[in-house]
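Treating backbone geometry as a discrete language has practical consequences that deserve illustration. The amino acid sequence and the backbone structure tokens for this protein are reproduced below.
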Amino acid sequence: MKKRITIATIFFLTLIAAGMIFNMRFPVRHLDIVRENAGDLDVPLILAVIKAESSFRENAHSHAGAQGLMQLMPATAADVAAHMGLVDFQPQDVWLPEVNIAMGSFYLNRLVNMYGCVQLALAAYNAGQGRVNRWLADPEISRDGKTLDNIPFPETYNYLRRVNRNRRIYSIILAVTGRA
């Protein structure tokens, strides 16, 4: 009997430890802000983008100059602020989670509406609209001009894989924890 209790205790503690490690690897932060700003996008997608872009580090800053949780370039942030009607927007506002997530989600929604496809929108979010438009116009990259048969940038290809994997994981996390 004592051996069963010990095995059960070890199993239970192992599950708790695994859950803690998983929670550290795939945090769910700013969920209320994400939900409030998701628009037509699903919450796991936005969480997956934040995870891929900044790993939920609010002060993340890329070598290219992208800033904050959703890694917005200053020019993109200014453009999005204008489209959102944010008349009092200041460049430093991008560091605030509520502003960064609102702007990043708005921009991603806009890209999905523009391209009609989440995968193209994600490619444009990562590589830029100009590159994606050139790829779509190149018959060696896109036979139909509407989808990408291959992605010439390994970084963008890997980004899409990472975001799609994270999206599936966040869907499961939200469902299992009752936050879906």
User: Anything to note?
Assistant: Residues 54 and 69 are 5 Å apart (CA to CA). Helices lie at 2-25, 31-37, 43-54, 74-84, 97-115, 118-127, 129-137, 154-176.
